[in-house]
Amino acid sequence: MAKVFDFPIILHSQACYCRYNYPLPYSQHPLIFTPTAEPRLKPNFPKLKSSYSYDNNNQTEKSSARRGLHYHSSRKRVFFLDVNPLCYNEGTWSFQYFAHWISLFLADVSNGEPVVAVIDGERGNEYRRNLLPTYKANRKRPGGSVSGGFIRTSVERSHKVILDVLKNCNVPVVKIESHEADDVVATLVAQVLQKGFQAVIASPDKDFKQLISEDVQILIPMPELDRWSYYTLKHYKAQYNCDPQSDLSLRSMLGDEADGVPGIKDVVPKFGRKTALKLLRKHGNLENLLAAATVRTVVMLMFNLMTTGYLIETLVMIQ
Prior knowledge:
Blueprint: E1 3-11, E2 14-22, E3 52-55, E4 60-63, E5 77-82, E6 88-89, E7 92-93, H1 95-109, E8 115-118, H2 126-131, H3 148-168, E9 173-174, H4 181-194, E10 198-202, E11 216-222, E12 227-231, H5 233-240, H6 247-254, H7 273-283, H8 286-296, H9 305-316
């Protein structure tokens, strides 16, 4: 008999009560297939306990188990599926790409645990774009070519199919107008943590690293291994040699070229990751660093960097 899991979602003063009925029989999942549309009757790899190590030099994950993925936890978990990034393969909209990763996710990862899918709301980046007009201005939008109308229509149809697929899999979809999925996920994660659950964010978006803790893990699709892989607090510390609490300050200092967000390095020459990490270890966070800069001009940071630093922090913060 399928397990039943009740979980209240409260977001922006609007409450909805989601009733999960997990798991569907494997054969009834409408999206268990490879990009070639051939039925996949069993998972691509066995569920084996894996021991992971993180190579800080080349930043590649190694696993002692052959293509295994199994994460043990004594506490109940809630998965948050960040849908939009999974629809793009190297910047190009691809329903087949989404189908492949959601198929692996349902078959090999979620294991009947509750899943909430989150998508960007209409005009989701409007708030940040008002602060910085170049925010995500370099992103390719479907329909930019001569056949743009056809591409746009195709994307809209695929988007509807994706929503139908999630609905048929008993996966509720949360979409809040004028809010990006990142911010909605952060709100929901905070709610489940307050109720004593652990949270797993399934997304390739590196912005979620600022949320990592003992109770929050990230699940990253790894095309080179053709599987999802957990990214935990241990991995973060091994990669950056600092706590995730410093991630927001680090990203505020370095900026984000993918989102068109400038960093302090665009104001101060030769300012890079090594210098940023050194300053964070000394001062703790961006606020303390900027306070020190106004008094002692740490590494040539002038007073006007306060405006730049806080603007960047607002843009990269998931809130």
